[in-house]
Write a structure and sequence with these properties.
Layout lengths: L1 H16 L14 E3 L1 H11 L1 H22 L4 E11 L20 E15 L3 H67 L7 H35 L8 E3 L14 H11 L1 H21 L5 E13 L16 E11 L6 H67 L5 H35 L10
């Protein structure tokens, strides 16, 4: 019974580890009956982690649009309004021209410059490339989070099923004890020699212990159900039922280990993240190196100014900043020279690229190791199910024999306790092994990047 208790308390911890739900205002009035795929589908729609991941995708898409926009003209306009001294054409030859503050006039001006990049040695194109690959990185990260959500739903779903199976085991033991006590009481009233009054005390004592286990089993079931509701973002008070009634082994065939590793390399989101991340980092290194070279551009200028009490001088050698209209177009080169700043930026981007290369080496080594662990967990659980099924079957026969002997007055009450304890322990271990198999299978599907839902591409 101690192992039975430890199995039950496992699901109390599942409930405590569940994330906080955003509870709805009113409890659902209708009874929801959901299968595992239904639960995963609802969890994927409600998961805040996926909303955060989508926001990261949108942010990176904004960086791509920003990088694209540098291909287009950039226009800067500066407008001024203020006081200006008066000026007349006849004063051009004057050597001493003074004005009074009372003679000041007002001027207004606007200067517009246009820069159209023509060639930037990769500053624009490489940043666009980096942002494009960055979007794929964020999409892969969102897919990874979806797999994590599905894995957690499976843990809670199978945990609830196990909690209910353990509760049924305790109820079965309690029912057998109740029948044995009724029989013992009847035998005592008939003054049968096969039973003593102390046997009743032993049965009552063991029944009390079983009642405690039953309460703990109900608590484990309640916590497991609450954990599942929380993951689905449902109110705790909602009427939720799962369509799977029994925790049973499926007929899935465990494949060779190497096949799982091959699937992981093709499907695992982390591998795509690293591949796209390396492309993005390589582009950022190229963009940083492009700062060593100038930007070739086409420039345009339009300048206008007007003041009421100033005559316009139409002389190309004289430019009146308060009253003029001119403009022009030119081919230009803009080159920013620094002492070490660009080199430091290139080194920083190269360091990030090298860091991701180390992450790639780590993933290629440790992801297969992770798959190996889950693969061995699956094989162990599969063999344990077979062994435990045989064990609890024999324990069941022992318990039936002990109860029958007690009914006929040829077996002691202690034999009932020993047989029922062994049966409960073996039966609970059997369901625990099935649960371990289901969790190992879910972990293995996560490790190889299996889609959360069968209909997913």
């Amino acid at each position: 019974m101690k192992k039975l208790l430890s199995g039950i308390t496992l699901f109390a911890s599942l409930g405590l580890l569940a994330p906080c739900a955003v509870a709805a205002d009113d409890a659902a009035k209708t009874r929801l009956v959901l299968g595992l795929d239904d639960c995963i589908r609802i969890a994927l729609k409600a998961a805040p982690e996926l909303g955060e991941a989508q926001a990261d995708i949108d942010q990176t898409a904004g960086k791509l649009e920003e990088a694209k926009s540098y291909r287009y003209p950039q226009i800067e306009v500066v407008a001024l309004f203020g006081p200006a001294p008066p000026a007349r054409k006849e004063e051009l030859g004057a050597t001493d021209s003074r004005f009074k503050m009372s003679e000041l006039t007002w001027f207004s001006s606007a200067d517009a410059t246009l820069i159209q990049p023509l060639y930037t040695f990769g500053k624009i194109s490489e940043n666009m490339k980096a942002a494009t690959h960055g979007i794929e990185v964020e999409r892969s990260r969102k897919e990874q989070r979806a797999h994590e959500v599905a894995q957690k739903v499976k843990e809670y779903y199978y945990g609830l099923m196990l909690a209910r199976e353990l509760k049924e085991v305790v109820l079965e033991v309690q029912e057998s004890l109740d029948k044995a006590r009724v029989k013992a009481q009847k035998m005592l009233e008939q003054e049968s020699s096969g039973v003593e009054e102390s046997d009743l005390y032993k049965l009552d004592a063991f029944s009390g212990e079983v009642a405690r286990y039953l309460e703990e089993a109900r608590k484990g079931e309640s916590l497991a159900l609450s954990a599942l509701k929380t993951r689905l973002n449902l109110p705790i008070s909602s009427a939720l039922e799962i369509s799977s009634e029994r925790l049973e082994m499926d007929q899935a065939v465990t494949r060779e280990f190497d096949l799982y590793v091959e699937k992981a390399r093709a499907r695992r989101p982390e591998f795509r993240q690293i591949a796209e991340g390396l492309k993005a980092r390589a582009a950022l290194v190229e963009a940083a190196q492009a700062n060593y070279y100038p930007d070739i551009f086409l420039g345009g200028l339009l300048s206008w100014a007007y003041a009421e009490d100033r005559d316009r001088i139409r002389n190309p050698y004289i430019n009146d900043k308060f009253n003029h209209l001119n403009g022009g177009v030119a081919l230009g080169a803009r080159w920013k020279l620094d002492f070490g700043i660009t080199g430091a930026r290139v080194a920083g981007e190269q360091a990030q690229y090298n860091r991701l290369l180390s992450t790639k080496d780590f993933a290629e080594t440790n992801i297969p190791l992770q798959i190996r662990k889950y693969y061995l967990d699956l094989k162990e659980a599969e063999n344990s199910v077979v062994a435990m099924k045989s064990g609890y079957g024999n324990a069941k026969k022992w318990a039936v024999t002990a109860l029958a002997n007690f009914d006929f007055g040829v077996g002691p009450a202690k034999e009932i306790f020993d047989a029922l304890q062994a049966y409960a322990r073996m039966r609970a271990s059997y369901f625990q092994s099935i649960y371990n198999y289901k969790i190992a299978e879910a972990n293995l599907e996560y490790a190889i990047g299996e889609p959360p839902l069968p209909s997913a591409p």
